[in-house]
Fold ATP synthase subunit delta.
Amino acid sequence: MAAQVRMQGPSRVALAAGQDRLELLLSSAGTDAARLAEDLFGVTNLVASNAALRRALTESSREADNRAALVARLLEGKVSGPAQDLVSGLVRSHWSNSADLTEALEGLAVSAALSGAEKAGRLDQVEDELFRFGRTVAGDVSLRDAFAIRTPGGERKRELVNALLSSKVAPETLRLAEQAAIAPRGRRVEQVLEKFLEAAAARRRQLVAEVVAASPLTEGQRARLSTALRRLYGRDIRVNLDVDPEVIGGLRIMVAGELIDSTVLSRLNTAKRTIAG
């Protein structure tokens, strides 16, 4: 789940679509969440630093294909294929204002980093470390000054974060703290960290559905399944899909320790037990 950003109208719809595409990528066994986060942070910082580029990527008078082509020219060979595809999808959407694209990119980058921590069993650790680092900065005048917006030198700020945290925290904590320090975009570092903490808390509250199907689900099928599970459990549900031809048909779903098994194999096994009994 992406960092919480308050958007209206078309931007809200565009962000939601981007979140869905990101979660599909993150649920794929071949996706490197850390690389994806790094690529998206790089694109975030590029877009944030160039107002003309932001306008070009969000201007509704330009065809969506033209905006996507611009992304291809800018990013081809510089970021991973999944990252380029994700950014292309974002710029094809409509945005209420150009600043929302920057916010969305950063939110998706944060989600990718947190997903990597989650898969490694470090999400609670990252949340705790970000909180403690934020409190450390807020409580130390010299650190507040060193990270202040008026203080120049992004690389010096990155080096300071590394001096304070390197080898002491999870890699995701370090990368998120670096991002907060070098690209606060008019905010205090502790304010950026609070935003990242909101995203971590939201992801921790999100339920995960482990789904086994006989064959891959289409995007539409995954979306309908997520909607049905959200209605059933009253919370956001992230779908992790595994394909096992032996289930023959239907779905086996595990959510919060609860098994929902509608596979043909399950019904066959039930029939066999009934006959044997």
Notes: The longest strand covers residues 207-213. Residues 1-119 form one domain.
